[in-house]
Write a structure and sequence with these properties.
2 domains; alpha/beta; 164 residues; four-stranded parallel β-sheet; 5 helices
Length: 164
């Protein structure tokens, strides 16, 4: 790992789609393109001042490449711990980033605006909804969210990772 300073923006290589999704869930600005070339990945990272997350040892040998984390584990949960520990990340902002497109998620203040876009039982049984400002995906605080948050908290506790 060679990171010049602690940054909160990432771009994950084609082998790290699941990690990218988890980091988005934790609130980190994480780009992911499943078919991106190394050249394009590096170009975006440099242009947007992002840390490259990669499992490709060949990629990190490119002369002049400075901000990267070489991920060693095949397990996504261990990959999360690698990133959090190596970069000393200190915050989690659950569900502030869209899992699909990495856009910003905002509160929907008027529940009626999404009535036609979610299943009826979801609309009737939830009061808090969110929408991605980029792709329009709608989220709500259902059981899946709480299970995922519980899983993340257990993972962090098991690995003695404590975030402010």
């Amino acid at each position: 790992m060679e990171v010049q300073n602690v940054k909160k923006k990432f771009i994950a290589d084609a082998m790290l789609g699941r990690l990218a999704r988890w980091l988005r869930f934790l609130g980190y600005d994480t780009l992911y393109y499943p078919h991106i070339t190394d050249r394009a990945l590096i170009s975006i990272a440099l242009k947007e001042d992002r840390v490259i997350l990669t499992r490709d040892t060949g990629l990190i040998k490119i002369k002049g490449l400075k901000d990267f984390v070489l991920i060693t584990s095949n397990n996504v949960e261990e990959q999360i711990i690698e990133v959090l520990n190596r970069l000393k990340l200190e915050k989690i902002d659950f569900m502030s980033r869209c899992l699909v497109c990495n856009g910003i998620i905002a509160d929907i203040t008027d529940k009626d605006l999404i009535r036609d876009f979610v299943p009826e039982y979801v609309y009737l049984n939830n009061n808090k909804f969110y929408r991605c400002n980029s792709c329009g995906k709608i989220y709500w605080e259902g059981s899946h969210l709480w299970k995922f948050i519980s899983k993340v908290n257990s993972l962090l506790k098991a690995h003695d990772v404590f975030l402010c």
